[in-house]
Automatic annotation (TrEMBL):
Domain AB hydrolase-1: 95-330
Keywords: Hydrolase, Signal
Signal peptide feature range: 1-19
Organism classification: Eukaryota, Fungi, Dikarya, Ascomycota, Pezizomycotina
Keyword check for Metal-binding: no
The organism of origin for this protein: Pseudomassariella vexata
Protein name in the entry: Alpha/Beta hydrolase protein
Length: 342
């Protein structure tokens, strides 16, 4: 019997009930990394291993593979096919020559109807109504899975398993989404020499506390619940970073909780080029600027790609499932080439 962490780097061949998809030619294999044995009343079990699928194009022309890491409650099928039957990001990056490792309605698919944050009214890219009973929404919602409630334990598990994956496959480009973003920070902190670039799509934030929905103070290390490597090293584990609130001077953007000066520096993450990408109509449009500002304050080389500001309009939080997902993938590829070379 095996217990597998619910937030996996996962890629599966899925058959959706909508249109057949013309996939990029590739070879497929899979493996497991990480995990630990535990003794239970049922015997010796293994838990917290990560299942990974490897997709290799017929001709690999890029120097580093891409790891696609999904968010909590989702699974790796998000990156394979879209619920309207279109090809997902895995196919786009395979076609571009990358080897690929691929790991509710009011927030994701019909945000313009609920209008819970100012930018929600800009959402136009979700195919269909985004509501239960719509064929495309139902195909998407069937992919949603349960998650681990204990955020700190979840982060610990994913940092360990993600590090084991990098030990196995070598230097890579890591692309995360939403709650997967906390794992991107912790894995980059543990393995900065093996993360050639980190792309955070609407990463969980803002620093220190939640926003828009709850406002809980949930990340004492600003980006994560588990320790990150700062310099000077914090001495108080329960309150490692002194904070201050910085008001926003722009309408419809939240105030930011930042470090009090002099700010501690993120010693390891600062070695990694970082791109934070934000959808125009996503609830992250309210606060992703705080994540970027915090990273810069902590000495991290970071760029903020705001889709609406580069002419890509109407995207919510689940951009890789929306109509114009290929256009967004092309922007990410452009940044990779600019940052790492062709």
């Amino acid at each position: 019997m095996h217990t597998i962490t619910n937030s996996l780097i996962l890629i599966l061949f899925a058959s959706f009930t909508l249109a057949a998809v013309n996939e990029t030619q590739h070879a497929r294999s899979y493996f497991f990394v990480g995990g630990e044995y535990v003794e239970t009343t049922a015997g010796t079990l293994i838990q917290n291993q990560m299942y990974v699928e490897r997709l290799s194009p017929a001709h690999i022309s890029r120097p580093y593979p891409i790891i696609l890491m999904h968010c909590a409650g989702q699974d790796g099928t998000n990156f394979l096919n879209k619920p309207d039957g279109g090809r997902g990001w895995a196919s786009w990056f395979l076609e571009a020559g990358y080897e690929v490792y691929v790991t509710i309605s009011s927030r994701f698919t019909a945000v313009q109807t609920f209008n819970l944050w100012p930018q929600a009214k800009l959402h136009t890219q979700w195919p269909g109504s985004g509501m239960p009973g719509d064929l495309i929404f139902d195909a998407y919602y069937q992919s949603v899975v349960q998650g681990i409630a204990n955020a700190t334990e979840h982060e610990r598990i994913m940092q360990k398993a993600g590090s084991a994956l990098l030990d196995k496959i070598g230097p890579s480009i890591l692309v995360t989404h939403s709650q997967g973003g906390v794992h991107g920070w912790s894995i980059a902190d543990a393995q900065p020499d093996k993360i050639k670039a980190l792309i955070q799509i609407d990463p969980r934030g803002p620093p220190f506390q939640e926003a828009v929905f709850p406002t809980d103070f949930s990340r004492p290390w600003a980006l994560t619940s588990i320790p990150l490597t700062f310099s000077p090293a914090p001495t108080n584990a329960s309150a490692p970073l002194a904070t201050q609130v910085v008001a926003s001077t722009t309408a419809n953007l939240t105030a930011c909780v930042m470090q009090a000066e002099p700010a501690r520096k993120l010693l390891h993450i600062a070695k990694v080029p970082v791109l934070v990408e934000t959808g125009e109509a996503s609830y992250h449009a309210v606060y992703d600027h705080c994540t970027v500002r915090f990273l810069k304050q902590a000495g991290v080389e970071v760029e903020h790609l705001e889709l609406g500001k580069v002419g890509i309009h109407g995207n919510g939080h689940m951009q890789f499932l929306e109509r114009n997902s290929d256009e967004i993938a092309a922007k990410l590829h452009d940044w990779i080439v600019k940052t790492l070379g062709d």
